[in-house]
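Per reviewer request, we include the raw input and output of the structure prediction for the construct analysed in the revised manuscript.
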Amino acid sequence: MSYVSEVADLQIAKYTNIGSLAILVFDYCITFQDEVHLTWFRRWDLIRVIFTISRYLPFVGSGMTAYAALRVSGPCPPSLAENIIHILCIIAAEGLLVIRTWAFWKKSKRLLIGLLIYSMATVIGAVAMNILPNHQLISTDVSMIPGSCGFESSRNAALVYAILALFECVILVLTAYKWFYDYRDSEIQTSIVTTVYGGSMLYMMCIIAITVTNVIIDAALPVGFTNMFDTLQLVIHSVLASRILFHLRSSDGRAHDTDMPLLVSAARFGGPSQMQTNEIQSGTSEV
C-alpha cells in the first residue's frame, strides 16, 4: 500500500462518517413528532431511560468521530472516551432489542436471564478486544501515515463486530421462532402481527447487515478504510432501534382501537386466538 492510496482511503472514510452524522440528524428531524407523541408523555421507566440513551448519546459519539475526521492540527482527540461512548450507544440500542424480545416471549424469566448473561458476555468480549489494540489477533498492514492520531482503528474491531453480529443473529432467530411458533397455523397475518414481528425482523436484518459489513471492512479492506462505517454503525443502531419502539407503540394503540375487528378476523379465518391477541398487545405495551 502506498502513502497516496492510504490518504485517499482515509478521505473516503472521513467523508462517509460525516455523511452518517447527517443521516442521524435527518432521521431525528423526521421522527421527532413520533418521539413526542409516543414517548414524551409516558412515565420515566427503564425502557424510556434506555431509549433516551440510544436516541441522544449517538449525537455525542458521532460528533466526536466527526471532530476526529475533520481535525487537521492540535492535540489528538480523546479516543478512549469516544470508544466508551460508542459502546454505550450500542449497548443501549441492543438493550431495547432485548426488552422487545423478552416481551415477545411473554416475559419469560428463563429467556430474560439467558439474554442478560449472554449480553454481559458479549459486552465483556467486545471491551476485551477494544483494550487490546497492541495485540493484533488479525494480521494487518502497517499504516504509512506518520503520527499517533491517525483516523484508523485496530483490526481487532472486526472481531468486536463479529461478536456483536452473533448476538444480533440470536435476537433475530428468537423473534423469527416466536413468530413462526405462534402463527404457523394462521391463514392470514393481521396488520398488528405483521408490524410487530415482520417490521422488527426487517429492521434487525438491516442492523445485522451493517455489522457484518464492518466485519468485512475491518478484516479484509486496506487499513485506511477501517473507520469508514464507524459512525454509521451507531446511526443504524440508534435509528432502527428507535423506529422499532415507535412502531410497536403505534401498533399497540391501533390494536386497542381495533380490538373487536381483529378478534372477528381471527375467528373467521383461523388466525390468532383471543389469548394470542392479548399476548401481542401485552408485548407491545411492554415496550
